[in-house]
Write a structure and sequence with these properties.
By secondary structure, this protein is α+β, with helices and mostly antiparallel strands. The chain has seven helices and eleven strands. The strands form three sheets. The chain has a four-stranded mixed β-sheet with strand order 1-10-9-5, covered by helices on one side.
C-alpha cells in the first residue's frame, strides 16, 4: 500500500472524528501536559503531548483552534518536534503556546491524533486535556483599603531646571537695555560710551568726496553715469547738511525750488543747475556728456561748496 493510499482512510477517519467526537477511538488513557498547572493572567504556558510514528505510518492531528476553550487562547497551530529516531521509529512531540486573560479554572479539551498504520488500519489516539488555573495577583482583603484616584504629582522645580530660563531672561533684558541705550545716544549724537561724536563740517565732507571722485577718473574710463552720480550725491549731502533741505530725497527741480529763499549767488545757482541738468540727462536719458562738460563738473561743484561756505562764514562774522 502506497503513502497516498493511506491518506484516504486517514482523512475519512478525521472527518468522522469532527462530527462524532472520536466515537471510534481505540486508544484511551493518554495524557497531554502543560508546563504549569496555574498561571497569572497574561502568562504563557506550553501544552504538549508525545506519540510514536513507526515506518510506513502516517498521522494527522486535530487542531485546537485559536480558542481551545472559552477564556484560553492559543498562539497558532500545533508544532511537531522530533525527539529521537530509532530503527526508523520517530518519537514526536506536539506543542502549542497558551495564554489567558480571564481568571478561573479551565479544563482543556482532548487532543486527537489519527494514525494510519502500515497494514492499512486507522487508530485514534485520544489525549485527555489537563486542568488549568488562571489567577490574578492576590489581594489581602483583611488590610486592603480602596483609595480615590490620585491627581497628577507636581514635583518642585530644581535649580538645574530654572537656571536656563533665568539666563534667557537676563539675556533678553540686556539686549533691550543695549538697544534703548544705542537709540538714545544716537539721538544725542554720542557714541555707545557717551562720548560726543565729532562730525566733520559739511564742506569738508563734500570736498573730500569730490576729490575722491576726481582721483578715480571715472569719466575718462567711460563710466559717466557713475561719475555724475557720485558728484551730485556729494552736492546733495552738502546742501542737506548746510541748508537743512531734504535734497537726498528730492528731485533736482524740488531741491532748487527749496534753495530759492537761501542766500546764494544766482550765478552760482545757475551753474549748479546746468551741472544737475547734465547729470540728469546722463543718468536717466543715456546722454553722453562732452569732455568739456565732464572737466567742468567737479570744479563747478567745488566752487559752489567753497563760495557758499565762505558766505556763511562772512555772515557769522557780521553778526
Amino acid at each position: 500500500m502506497t503513502w497516498k493510499s493511506k491518506l484516504w482512510p486517514l482523512m475519512l477517519a478525521f472527518a468522522t472524528l469532527c462530527f462524532h467526537q472520536a466515537a471510534g477511538a481505540q486508544d484511551h488513557g493518554l495524557q497531554s501536559r502543560i508546563s504549569r498547572d496555574s498561571i497569572l493572567i497574561g502568562d504563557q504556558i506550553e501544552w504538549t503531548f508525545d506519540f510514536q510514528l513507526a515506518p510506513g505510518e502516517a498521522a494527522r492531528i486535530s487542531k485546537p483552534g485559536n480558542e481551545p476553550v472559552p477564556g484560553v487562547e492559543a498562539f497558532g497551530d500545533i508544532v511537531l518536534d522530533t525527539l529521537s529516531t530509532k530503527n526508523g521509529t520517530l518519537d514526536l512531540r506536539g506543542h502549542v503556546t497558551l495564554t489567558s486573560f480571564d481568571s478561573g479554572s479551565y479544563v482543556l479539551p482532548p487532543l486527537y491524533v489519527l494514525m494510519a498504520r502500515a497494514d492499512g488500519s486507522v487508530d485514534t489516539l485520544e489525549y485527555a486535556g489537563p486542568r488549568l488555573a488562571v489567577t490574578t495577583i492576590p489581594i489581602d482583603t483583611a488590610t486592603f483599603q480602596p483609595y480615590d484616584i490620585k491627581g497628577q504629582i507636581r514635583y518642585p522645580l530644581t535649580f538645574k531646571e530654572v537656571i536656563p530660563w533665568v539666563g534667557l531672561a537676563l539675556l533678553i533684558a540686556a539686549l533691550v537695555w543695549l538697544l534703548v541705550r544705542w537709540i538714545r545716544l544716537r539721538r544725542q549724537n554720542r557714541d555707545f560710551f557717551g562720548k560726543p561724536v565729532v562730525k566733520d563740517p559739511p564742506h569738508i565732507v563734500a570736498l573730500r568726496s569730490l576729490e575722491k571722485t576726481r582721483s578715480q577718473k571715472l569719466w575718462q574710463a567711460g563710466k559717466q553715469k557713475q561719475f555724475y552720480t557720485q558728484v551730485t550725491d556729494a552736492l546733495r549731502q552738502y546742501i542737506a547738511d548746510r541748508y537743512d533741505v531734504a535734497a537726498l530725497e528730492q528731485t533736482s527741480a524740488e531741491m532748487f525750488r527749496d534753495l530759492q529763499d537761501k542766500d546764494i549767488d544766482p550765478a552760482l545757482t545757475g551753474q549748479l543747475k546746468d551741472l544737475f541738468t547734465t547729470a540728469d540727462f546722463v543718468k536717466f536719458a543715456k546722454h553722453t556728456a562732452s569732455d568739456q562738460e565732464n572737466e567742468n563738473a567737479i570744479p563747478t561743484a567745488i566752487r559752489f561748496v567753497n563760495e557758499t561756505y565762505m558766505k556763511e562764514i562772512e555772515k557769522e562774522e557780521d553778526e
